[in-house]
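Standup, Tuesday
Yesterday: got the pipeline producing structure tokens again.
Today: sanity-check two examples.
Blockers: none.

Example 1:
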Amino acid sequence: MSQNINSKVNTVSYTDFNNPAGQTTIQGIRGVSESENVYIAGSLLSENNLVQGLIYEGTLKTNGNEGKWYVVNFPSTPTAAVVNTSCYGPNNGPHGTIQIVGSYKIAASTGKAPSGNLGFYYEGAIDGSGTWVQVAPNGGNTNNVFVHSVMGGIAVGNYDVENDKNGYAFLYNTSSKECTEFKVPDSLTTTLYGIWHNGGDSYTMAGGYTSPKLGKISQAFLVDYNSKTKETSNLKSFSYQNETALSIITHFEGITVSKDNGYNMPSDWISINGEKNGASFVSVNRNADGSFGEANWVDIDFPDSSVTSANTVYRNSILGIYVVENSADTKTVSSFVAKVS
């Protein structure tokens, strides 16, 4: 399915992009080094409702048929059977390898299984035969862990703990295996979904937060991070269409660099009355002093769908999922690419 949506400024073209083997959820993307190909990370829901990790390498020019799909899963052990794996963020590893982060669940054969999701970091061949490592922030005292993105030796993600559903964010050093807590100042909850390595010790991160000042309203943010000093700078908050009153939730789902000294982000939002949720392509340039400027918003709405979610971004393309309501009270979930010109 492909269709163009015209506006006064932008044109958005939509294309389905799925693994033919089953329901595909795209969750991350990164360009392959020295190639026009991309890595896409996600999950595959099979006919028996088993969720498996999914990696694609190929072009974005078609609907996923010209590249190659790989099913990868966190390895089971004799005492812990892995029952699902979900891949969130891919990245280029050393010597032609791939790095992947995400989450997995286990069902222990003896003793009590950990509740919720466990985080992981993978490095090796694209077929999943490399090294898998559990990522355990907060000393392992977690209820759910999701590692969302990795680049330049640092991964970012979130966790919560039992009986405490507040969102906690962290950074994970892929070499030292150390986790560092991160919190937007004076926030109630913080989420980190995207990281971009600018070079050297410089990174830019994206996510969302809530604060006592705004109550239930959640805002997106960008912030610079120095991996040597572990200090942040240039923190800036964003709300849908740059007006707080339009949404109760605005969140950046990832980040990529743009050509004009700025960044592009996929964003999901929910309107202030909760009646509408949507997705947007967001571009932000830097000011002369290095701070972030105002955001430019382009709504992403897959034709004839009831829900559109923006999960990741590559150059000027947003990837995510859309939902179609069927006549028999059933829903069809499919992944897409939306190119913004």
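Example 2:
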Amino acid sequence: MTDFTHFNEHGRAKMVDITNKKETARKAIARSSIQMNQQVYDSITENKIKKGDVLSVAQVAGIMAAKQTSTLIPMCHPIPISGVDLSFEWSTLENNYELVIHAEVKTIGSTGVEMEALTAASVAALTVYDMCKAVDKSMVIGQTYLLEKSGGKSGDYKR
């Protein structure tokens, strides 16, 4: 375990200086999910949600969120993102349905895009909740975590 890098010599928060870090191709993939009942699942898959196409809106929300990460997370650097993609996959859990969300973010830069991928996946799940809460408020947003990342000084990571 490495030392935390977001504190200065006085123990106060700081943004890490990446001035001398080498630019490399970087990628991160994060996962989140949202569980729902059959009524919500049917409403989404049959395009019966009054607010519109849920997965299309969640896709755009995730992309927008990745681009705004540095305005939401205080110590994140604003970075040039070269690509964001979200994918959705359905699975069945007993009497519930789960929408699994994967967010992939890429850049060429001096710092990674893990936070951007995590933010994209999280906001996509929140968007699904927002669009479907009129049908059922008992949806549960599941664990959100980093699946993999590549590039940079710390190397590759795969969960």
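Quick observation on example 2: The domain at 24-149 is CATH 3.30.70.640 (Alpha-Beta Plaits). The radius of gyration is 18 Å.
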